[in-house]
Structure formats: C-alpha cells, structure tokens
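Colleagues,

For the teaching module next term, I've prepared a clean inverse folding example: a structure given as tokens, and then the sequence designed for it. I'd like students to try predicting residues themselves before seeing the answer, so please don't circulate the second half yet.
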C-alpha cells in the first residue's frame, strides 16, 4: 500500500483590516476563518499584518511628523501579544472551524512599550499554537516601527500534512530564506503580502507577488498560498492626501493579487484584483510534491552540501543578561528577618578579633 499523501483544500484570504482596530479586525479574522472552514478549507493563509493593519502611512506622511507618530502609537496600542487573549480567540476560531491558520499580525513584546514585530502565527486545527515566524528584516517604512525577527522562526512547522512554512513580503524573494525552506521540505507555504507597495514601484504589486511566489513554489516544490491585503474606503480616506494618492490607493491592479500556486509554479487559483475581498480555494494533491521533487530536490540529491552549505542562527539573543547572586534585582531580595540578622551578626569578641587581624596586616605591609 505504501505511504499516503492526502488531497486537501487550500484557501487564501484577501481582505482589508478594520484599520488600526485590533478588536474589530480580530472579529473579522474569526469570521473569515469560519467562512473558510464552511468552504471546506483545510489550510488558510492571511495577508501580512492583517491584525491590526500595515504601517502604510509612511508612504504619505513624513516619519517625524505628528500624524505619523500618532498612527504609530495606535499601531502599538492595537498590536498583539503572543500568547494572550487575542491569540486565544484566534485559536478558538481555528478549532471551531477545524482548519490550520497562518495569521499575519503585528506582535508586541509583553510588558514593555515600543518594540513590534511583523509576524506570522501558525495555529493548528485543534486550536494549538504551532509556532511563529517573525520577518527578519523590515522593509522601507516598516523599519520605523518594526524590529528584525529571530532566526528561530525561519523554519518549517510540523503538521498532519507535513512541514509547512511562511515568509513575509520581500522575504519570499530572499534566496537564502527559500533555501532554508527547500532544505526542510515545506509542502505548504504561506507568502503573506501587504495592502499595496509604494507608489511608482518598478513593478505592480500583483506582478511582484506572482514572480516571488511562483519562484518559492518551484524552488521548494511546494504549494504556495499567496495572501495579499487590500484597501478599504475608510483606509483611502485616512491615508490619501492628494488626488494622486487616492488614484493610487484605489487602482485594483496596485493592490491585492492573492493566488494559489502549485509545485511546478502554475497558478491554480486567482489572482484576485485589489477591488475584491474574498477567499480563494484550490483542491490539491500533496502527492504532487513527490513528483516534482523527483525532478529537482534542492534539499537532497539536487544539491552539493560538500560545496554549498547554509547556516541559520536559532539563538534569541537578549539585550540584558544578569549574572551573579542578585539576578532578580534588588526589588526581589529576601526580606530581612531576626533569624537571618542573628546568623549574620558578629559577636563583640569576633569583631575585635577581625579588627586586630586588619591592624596586624597593615603593620606588616608598611
């Protein structure tokens, strides 16, 4: 009989967030997860930074200006902690729908104010967190609000369908990132994309999405869910400052572009224009990943590790490391007790003897 590789249904979500509103976007995300489950999806991918939205304003606002800072503060206030109650709600939605979910969100570090990551969260169909991938290098305006992620998330995550993976926007063009996922035999990859690229980009967003996503599919011999954001009328009203801005933001060819791609690089669903919100579906046979690997297996026989090798640093390096006996800080020192004070106290005789030894040492040295 041999091994079996199931036929499953993939889904790509293309939608706009309720911009900079975590709770409202979370509810929209959960509704879309439910819709995907009702549509028979086994695995669903969401756009980049879907919760609570991408820092698009830096294309239109000067970075040090008050409005840009005000929007950045709102982004932080509406970002997501992992774990946390908002993640719990996503996990519940995934479990209720019985689907794997890869959610794009802005992550913030617990118990601090300032540091944010551009993150993909992987959730299993029982509502369990499988892992997360943080974008290694923020792009253009993202650099003003996001920091670089950990190499520990540049990897595949195990599922019942085999290894799965994700990368964010320009990372899907990174040859070394693609090589990592090819070496770990990803079968389903979520390429997450923002609502639009910068004005006057050399290529349209849709063209760029397809170039990069098809390359990942072909190099890794995997199925790729390319999930892109789009722009709501409310976002246009908030962001556009000129007629040119409004025309750019409402051009259906300069936003959106979601698609699903097979391991040979063929587009099997989409692409969707940017004036459409919806979910793309594709029924796939995971056995195809075997067939195409028999042509090129870049993690195996079609490579030369004696000649070409790639090293990934999985370490999470902390800025602060405490050493010594007071690692917890002065505020966590044990409270003084009479018993402890008595044990540490010197008797008059012991104190006199210690002072006499100090005097003798000083005389000897002189």
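(Answer key — instructors only)
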């Amino acid at each position: 009989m041999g091994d079996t590789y199931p036929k499953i249904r993939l889904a790509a979500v293309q939608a706009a967030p309720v911009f900079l509103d975590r709770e409202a976007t979370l509810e929209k995300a959960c509704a879309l997860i439910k819709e995907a489950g009702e549509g028979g999806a086994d695995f669903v991918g969401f756009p980049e930074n879907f919760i609570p939205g991408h820092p698009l304003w830096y294309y239109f606002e000067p970075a040090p200006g008050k409005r840009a800072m005000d929007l950045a503060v709102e982004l932080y206030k509406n970002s997501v902690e992992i774990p946390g109650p908002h993640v719990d709600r996503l996990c519940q939605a995934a479990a209720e729908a019985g689907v794997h979910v890869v959610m794009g969100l802005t992550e913030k570090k617990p118990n601090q104010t300032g540091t944010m990551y551009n993150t993909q969260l992987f959730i299993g169909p029982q509502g369990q967190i499988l892992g997360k991938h943080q974008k290694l290098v923020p792009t253009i305006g993202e650099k003003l609000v996001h920091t670089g992620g950990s190499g520990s998330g540049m990897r595949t995550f195990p599922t019942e369908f085999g290894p799965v993976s994700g990368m964010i926007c320009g990372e899907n063009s990174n040859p070394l990132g693609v090589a990592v996922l090819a070496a770990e035999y990803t079968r389903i990859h979520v390429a997450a994309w923002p609502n639009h690229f910068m004005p006057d980009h050399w290529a349209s967003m849709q063209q760029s999405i397809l170039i990069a996503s098809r390359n990942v599919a072909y190099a890794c011999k995997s199925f790729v869910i390319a999930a892109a954001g789009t722009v709501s009328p409310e976002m246009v009203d908030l962001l556009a400052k000129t007629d040119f801005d409004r025309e750019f933001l409402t051009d259906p060819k300069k936003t959106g572009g979601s698609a699903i791609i097979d391991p040979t690089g063929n587009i099997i669903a989409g692409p969707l224009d940017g004036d459409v919100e919806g979910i793309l579906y594709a029924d796939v046979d995971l056995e195809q990943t075997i067939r195409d690997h028999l042509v090129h297996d870049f993690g195996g026989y079609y490579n030369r590790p004696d000649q070409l090798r790639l090293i990934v640093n999985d370490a999470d390096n902390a800025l602060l490391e405490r050493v010594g006996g007071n690692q917890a800080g002065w505020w966590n020192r044990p409270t003084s007790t009479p018993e402890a004070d008595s044990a540490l106290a010197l008797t008059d005789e012991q104190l006199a003897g210690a002072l006499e030894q100090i005097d003798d040492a000083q005389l000897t040295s002189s």
